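[Q] Does anyone have a clean C-alpha cell version of this?
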Amino acid sequence: MFTSLRLTNFKAWRDTGTVALRPVTMFLGTNSSGKSSLLQSLLLLKQTVQAPDRTIHLNLGGDESNDLFDFGAFDSVLKQKTLAPRQFSLGVAFERSDARVPRGYFECSYGQTSSGSVAIAELTLRADTRQFKVLRREKGEYAVYVGAESSSKLKGRHYTPERSIALSADAIAALDKDGALAADLSLSLRREFEGISYLGPLRRKPERDYSWNKVKPGEVGSDGGSSIGVLLASALLKAEDQHYVVEGVSRWLARMKVAERLEIRQQGRSNRYELIVHRDGVACNLRDVGVGVSLVLPVLVVAYFAAPGSTIILEEPEIHLHPLAQSVLAELFVEVSQERQVQFLVETHSEHLFRRMQTLIAQGKASHGQAAMYFAQKQGADAHLQKLDVDEFGAVQNWPHNFFGDSVGEARMQAMARAQRLKG
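[A] Here you go.
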C-alpha cells in the first residue's frame, strides 16, 4: 500500500506537500484542478517500472499497446514557468507485508539533457534508517552515496540508475551487503508499482457476445476491456476461487439495485458467451440493459480481481450510475479494502459517494485511519490540495464553499419563486 505521495513542479503542482494515503483515499475538486495528475504520477512510475528497456530513466508513454498514459514531452510534464534547475520530482512511501523490505521511501528528481531526453537528476531510496542517494554529475556520470556520508562510495557512468527505482547492477555488486539491501528495497518498490490496477473514466462499450479462449486475463485494463474475460474465467475455470469474482460482482449489483445477479451463457458449443443480467424476473443481454450496469461492471470486477495488497486507481467510478448506486460505491470501497486488503485511490465528482462516506465514518464503519478525503482547486496557475477535516461524526469542518452547490439556498429561491408566481 502507498502511504504517502509528494509531487513538485509536476504539471499543475508546484508542491503538493506530503499527501497521506489511506486504504480508501478520495480526491474531489473542480474540473482541471490537478486531481487527476496526482493519480497519473503513480501511473507514470508504473509504466516506467514495466518498461522493457531497463536503462530507461522515465517512460513518458506513447506506445498505446503497452503504456497506460501518454504524457507527451518533458515540457508537458514540467510545471510551467519553473525556474532553473528545470526539474520535477515524484516521491512515494509504501508498506508491504509480504516483502523482505516491508516499508520504504522513494523520491526521484528529473531533468533534461542537452539532447532533450529525460534524465534522473537525483534518486533517493530509504528503508527504515538506511538511505541510498544517487546524484547525476558531469558528462552523465552518477555518484552513489550511502547513509549520511558526505563523500560518494561510487562514481561513474556505469552507476546510472535503472527504471527510476533501482541502483545499477554494478552499484549493487560494489556495495556488497548495502547493495543487497538496495536491491531488496527496489524489488519491494517494483512490486508495489506493478500491483497497481488502473481503471480510467472512458470504458469500453458492451458487446452482445464474447469469444473466450479459456485463459484468465492478467488485468482488467484501463478501459475495463478485459472485465468480461475475468468474469468468464471466474465462472468457467475450475479453481479454488471459482465463482468468487462473479459472486462478488453480483452481490454489489444487487446492493446497488441495478441487477439481481449475473449469468454466463454459452452459445451452443461455440467459444462465444453471453453475459446475462437478471432483474425483476427478467433476463437481458448486457447489451440491452442500461449503460450504467456495463460501466460499473469493471469497477466491481477489479475490486475482486486485483491481488490482495495491491492498489486500485479509479477515475470517476460513478459514471452513469443513479444516486443510490453512487452512494453504495463508498460501501464497496470500505468493505472490500477491509476484506481483501486492497487500497482504493479514487478521483470523483460524486456528492452521493462523498456523503455516504461521511455516513460510514459517523457509523464507525470507516475510521480516520482507513479513509482520507482531499479537495483540489486552482489558485491562479497553481493547484492546491486541502485535506478535508472530517470529525468522528462525519461532519466536514473545512468544506470548500458551495462546491456541491447550496441546497438550502436553492430551496429558498424555489419558495420565493413560488410565492411570486402565486401572487401574480
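[Q] Thanks! Anything notable?
[A] The radius of gyration is 24 Å.
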